[in-house]
Amino acid sequence: MAAAPSIRCSSCRASDVTAAWTRLDWPDGDFRLAPSFWSTAESDDLLAALDALPDWRQHRVRLFGRDVPSPRLSAWYGDAGTGYRYSGHYHEPLPWPPLLQRLRERIAATTGHRFNAVLANRYRDGGDAMGWHSDNEPELGARPVIASASFGGVRRFLLRHRDSGRREALDLGHGSLLLMAGDSQRCWQHAVPRTRRAIGLRINLTFRLIQPP
Ligand SMILES: O=C(O)CCC(=O)C(=O)O
Ligand SMILES: [Fe+2]
């Protein structure tokens, strides 16, 4: 089972950039947002470096029984043995680029959680999107801890409770980190809808822990 969510930020040193976490007061899940986990200057550099990764591909996804091109570009990185099936397709992990390795270490050090894989998504403009889903694949375990880092254009992140239908929304901005733990995946779905607003490139990284088989 995943470790209990722990945010060590109440004891952050003043030198840590990762100062402010907000715990979202929603039932049946554990959502915490650090809107400025990275400074703007750091986030600008990270966006450019992530954009330059050579691995962006348009994966195919299964939608209503049909195989269609995904409305975004993606790449799956991880330790050996973190092959992952999502949207009806199996993905072998690419080896960690040093940049992503550093991000993973920083997030692990701050949150106290371990991650062995990351799904990177590149939304070229407001026409790119992600449909409703939960990250509840069996290999993530019963109560997955997912750290979601966003860089670039601010996009709306929608949530809906599976049973009550309650809806929530967050704006995930440049340099933000959203931590989803506990029953967040079992009880809630999330999506990044298309928007007609003129919005530039956005890159999102969801760090995950694939359990050994
Ligand atoms: O782009 C986002 O903010 C969400 C990404 C996501 O839900 C996922 O990768 O599973
Ligand atoms: Fe997700």
From TrEMBL:
Q: What transmembrane ranges does the database entry give?
A: none
Q: Write out the residues that bind 2-oxoglutarate.
A: N121, Y123, H133, H190, R202, T206, R208
Q: Which positions are annotated as binding substrate?
A: F64, G65, R66, Y84, R85, Y86
Which GO biological process annotations does it have?
DNA alkylation repair
Please give the Gene Ontology molecular function terms for this protein: broad specificity oxidative DNA demethylase activity; cytosine C-5 DNA demethylase activity; ferrous iron binding
Start and end residues of each Fe2OG dioxygenase domain: 114-211
Cross-referenced InterPro entries: AlkB-like, AlkB-like_sf, ALKBH2, Oxoglu/Fe-dep_dioxygenase_dom
- Keywords recorded for this protein, A-Z: Dioxygenase, DNA damage, DNA repair, Iron, Magnesium, Metal-binding, Oxidoreductase
Q: Which Gene3D superfamilies match?
A: Alpha-ketoglutarate-dependent dioxygenase AlkB-like (2.60.120.590)
Cofactors: Fe(2+)
PANTHER family attached to this UniProt entry: ALPHA-KETOGLUTARATE-DEPENDENT DIOXYGENASE ALKB HOMOLOG 2, DNA OXIDATIVE DEMETHYLASE ALKBH2
This chain belongs to the protein called DNA-N1-methyladenine dioxygenase
Which source organism?
Pseudofulvimonas gallinarii
